[in-house]
Specification:
- The protein is of the alpha/beta class.
- The protein has eight helices and 17 strands.
- Strands 4-3-6-1-2-5 form a six-stranded antiparallel β-sheet. Strands 12, 13, 14, 15, 16 and 17 form a six-stranded mixed β-sheet that branches.
- The structure holds flavin-adenine dinucleotide.
- Flavin-adenine dinucleotide (FAD) binds next to strand 4, strand 5 and helix 2.
């Protein structure tokens, strides 16, 4: 009663936001530029942090212009880092709210929300004899977490970026090459063109024998999955996607009502309801934004929505929950937010 409307924990948060028992948070302690549009953010997680496995990602909640936005970022620091801090490395994308904020505006001292690390794009317990890392652009981040964490006898990396100066962690990669801990092929797509997956025969002749971790844009990963499957070695390929593969966009959208907030907006049949809600200023829960973590599930009160990955229509029924990050309006609907 004494502290109403704030809770005692709100006061504790002011003096000790990273304490044990507090909602998990982290403090940004440094931001190091990596390339013109990418930076590594050094975070000190609060006491409840359980640690990660190399290759996993963490969801972070960042306040941008007064709105809390959640995004996923791969952890780029090794698991045995001694100072208890972790790093993520973010590439600013065109019109990207969180990525530009982190790369260009985040300052040391800022508190962010953290989830526990998660993800199954990880190294196995038993070390494979030969490893291939196939990456492009910011897709290098989970792999850098692995490279910094675990040494293998025989590691080859094929990495694509528009130009040499766009290669994130380039100096560190070249140091590993000089120490004979890595064989690296850089594909500079501005001059070499996009990597034709068939070129792997020439770049890494024994690619099919290698346990492979691939992360990059959908085009590269789709081609890799097809290639590995064609050669019957798909079980050796592990992929991580930063965006969902949208295969269907419905023709018509509809009027979307967020009944708890009392807002109604028009939506097309291709834009995720999560984006529609955020754009309308509705407080939407969110997570990976690609349909894997279920952090965005919300009751569908009325109407119908379309799953953008499969085209499947879900109609409102009592208890029906939808993933707003991969669902678009399929006619008028009411989302309980
Ligand atoms: C498991 C996982 C791990 C990830 N790890 C990293 C990482 O280590 N480093 C990193 O930089 N990013 C990573 N991402 C992507 C990251 O979560 C955000 O999607 C990205 O930073 C864009 O967020 P934003 O708020 O800047 O863009 P938004 O404001 O959400 O979007 C702006 C525009 O860009 C488009 N867009 C959204 N995401 C992407 C994308 N990834 N690529 C291209 N266009 C996009 C949107 O459709 C929209 O048109 C990861 C994503 C996942 C799911």
């Amino acid at each position: 009663m004494v502290t109403t409307p704030l809770l005692p924990s709100d006061y504790l948060d002011l003096v000790s936001p990273l304490r044990a028992g507090a909602e998990l948070r982290g403090r940004i302690e440094a931001v190091h530029p990596e390339t013109d549009d990418a930076a590594t953010v050094v975070i000190r997680p609060g006491r409840g942090w359980r640690g990660h496995t190399a290759g996993q990602y963490v969801r972070i909640g960042v306040d941008v212009d007064g709105v809390r936005l959640w995004r996923a970022y791969s952890i780029t620091s090794p698991t045995n880092r001694q100072d208890g801090r972790v790093t993520i490395t973010v590439k600013a994308i065109l019109d990207g709210k969180v990525s530009n904020h982190l790369v260009r505006r985040a300052t040391p001292g800022t508190l962010i929300q953290l989830d526990q690390p998660t993800g199954d794009f990880v190294l196995p317990q038993a070390k494979p004899a030969k490893v291939l890392y196939l990456t492009a652009g910011s897709g290098i981040t989970p792999v850098m977490g692995m490279l910094r964490d675990t040494e293998f006898d025989d590691v080859v990396m094929v990495h694509c970026a528009p130009q040499p100066q766009d290669v994130i962690f380039r100096n560190e990669l070249h140091d590993l090459v000089a120490d004979k801990k890595l064989r690296l092929t850089e594909v500079h797509t501005d001059t070499d063109g996009k990597l034709d997956i068939a070129r792997l025969d020439e770049l890494v002749p024994d690619w099919a024998e290698r346990e492979t971790w691939a992360c990059g844009p959908a085009g590269l990963l789709d081609a890799a999955e097809e290639h590995w499957t064609e050669h019957g070695v798909q079980e050796r390929l592990h992929t991580e996607r930063f965006r969902p593969s949208i295969v269907v966009a419905g023709d018509g959208g509809g009027e979307v009502t967020f009944s708890a907030t009392g807002k109604t907006v028009d939506a097309d049949g291709a834009t995720p309801l999560l984006d529609i809600g955020e754009e309308a200023g509705v407080l939407m829960p969110s997570g990976c934004r690609m349909g894997i973590c279920f952090g965005c599930i919300t009751p569908l009160k009325a109407g119908a929505v379309r799953d953008l990955r499969t085209g499947e229509i879900t109609e409102a029924e009592p208890g029906v929950l939808i993933q707003t990050c991969v669902s678009a309006a399929a006619g008028p609907c009411d989302i309980e937010r």
